[in-house]
Design a protein that fits this description.
alpha/beta, three-stranded antiparallel sheet, 31% helix, seven-stranded parallel sheet, binds fructose -6-phosphate
């Protein structure tokens, strides 16, 4: 089942997404959340932190798994997704550090790190609610157009265009060239998916993902087959 909720503004989108995550935590205090980085979830995390500070949400029993991480960046590198999560959510709530998982981009044996991540998700009982953003080319996590649908956590080489776009964040020129990412099969195993899309730049990708043919060219199009997908979007040109 697919629900599409049109938000009035980015703030409205963020509050609605935070409400759904909050409801999940109320209904199942020891739930497993799948989390995303990027600019879109920032408002959602801000809202969750605000509610935590008002004592309206308790993360003490929650477990989290992030979608992805750059290969070669230490967790304490300011550009790592782990740092992003600490800054925007982990360190600002009562999530227990041992319950917050981000793929290990610094593992000596990356293939083993991928298998361990899959195993940790299974051991935790699987993901109850997965938060997702969408790329303007239809990607989800680091599954770019053309990615296979049947993968769990795996290593991907970043496209030259992504490396070029990221280079502004890496003044020393050491731009990561690979990432460790949940694959589409693993993402599709989440019991519920919450996809958030903001800005006219996402309009075309979102439209193709939700209404176009299911195709590896638009990785997010596979979400049409998910039994419990909620989309919150704010992609109109005029507001
Ligand atoms: C983030 C991730 C990415 C983003 C996507 C949208 O963990 O996996 O797929 O969700 O690139 O990014 P923003 O929200 O910055 O537009």
């Amino acid at each position: 089942m697919m629900r599409i909720i049109k938000a009035k503004s980015y703030q409205d989108l963020s509050r609605k997404a935070a409400n759904i995550i909050s409801a999940q935590v109320i209904l199942k205090p020891n739930c497993v959340l799948g989390l995303a980085t990027g600019s879109t979830p920032l408002g959602t995390y801000r809202q969750l932190v605000e509610w935590y500070r008002k004592d309206d949400i308790d993360f003490s029993k929650v477990t989290t798994f992030n979608l992805d991480e750059y290969v070669g960046l230490r967790p304490d590198d300011p550009q790592s997704y782990y740092s992003y999560m600490r800054q925007n959510l982990f360190d600002l709530t009562n999530l227990r550090p041992g319950s917050c998982h981000v793929p290990d981009g610094c593992a000596v044996d990356l293939a083993a790190a991928c298998r361990d991540y899959d195993a940790a998700i299974s051991e935790a009982g699987g993901i109850d609610l997965q938060l997702l953003g969408i790329g303007s080319n239809g990607h989800i996590a680091f599954n770019e157009p053309g990615a296979a649908f049947e993968k769990d956590t795996h290593i991907v080489s970043l496209r030259e265009s992504t490396i070029a776009a990221n280079s502004r964040f890496f003044p020393d020129g050491c731009v990561p060239r690979q990432a460790i990412t949940m694959g589409i099969r693993l993402i599709m195993q989440a019991r519920k998916i919450l996809l958030i899309a903001d800005g006219p730049g996402k309009r075309n990708a979102l439209h193709r993902a939700l209404y176009g043919p299911i195709s590896a060219e638009i990785p997010a199009s596979i979400l049409q087959l998910h039994p419990d997908l909620t989309v919150i979007c704010h992609v109109k040109e005029d507001d």
